[in-house]
């Protein structure tokens, strides 16, 4: 195999090419609520997504790749599992089960909570929900009073569209009542975004036009 065709060496931690390693932005963060990220297959190799950085930074986070889940991918272990997803009526459809209400007593025991997060564009995450009956059966957590997204390298179509990392940090802050603990990870994410912004601003050698990166990893949450 010629040198031109040889695969580029990858970082064993973030699984990205060494030239695009994101480990410098990993910010180890302690948290009580377990996190399960369900990543759409098309997001796995998206270099600009935020799920991998989130996964490497959270102490109790598992990442599973898939589009349709016919059976739960979380264990039956006594924990209360809830889905980070809007609870607005616009998501209601004849073939989509109405989610159960989130029992208030669940929120009193953070260490017994498991938060499921869908990593994908709004359209992809919606399709994942439609194709996965176990997800439809979960109570939902909707985010409230959100600050603007710092994921400025991608155009959001509404103020309630955030990166997966941001949405998860805000959800954990809401559940655990400690926003300051997650701020270092959000600050590290700002550095990651700045790096992507600079890389996307490079000009194409042939056209002379700037080439902003196409980013994914957004989920929409209720405002």
From TrEMBL:
Protein name stated in the entry: tRNA-uridine aminocarboxypropyltransferase
Superkingdom per UniProt: Bacteria
Organism annotation: Variovorax paradoxus
Listed PANTHER family: TRNA-URIDINE AMINOCARBOXYPROPYLTRANSFERASE 2 (PTHR21392)
DTW domain sequence ranges: 7-201
Assigned protein family: Belongs to the TDD superfamily. DTWD2 family.
Keyword Plastid in record: no
Record keyword rRNA-binding present: no
GO terms, biological process: tRNA processing
EC numbers, comma separated: 2.5.1.25
Molecular function per GO: tRNA-uridine aminocarboxypropyltransferase activity
UniProtKB keywords: S-adenosyl-L-methionine, Transferase, tRNA processing
One Pfam family here: DTW
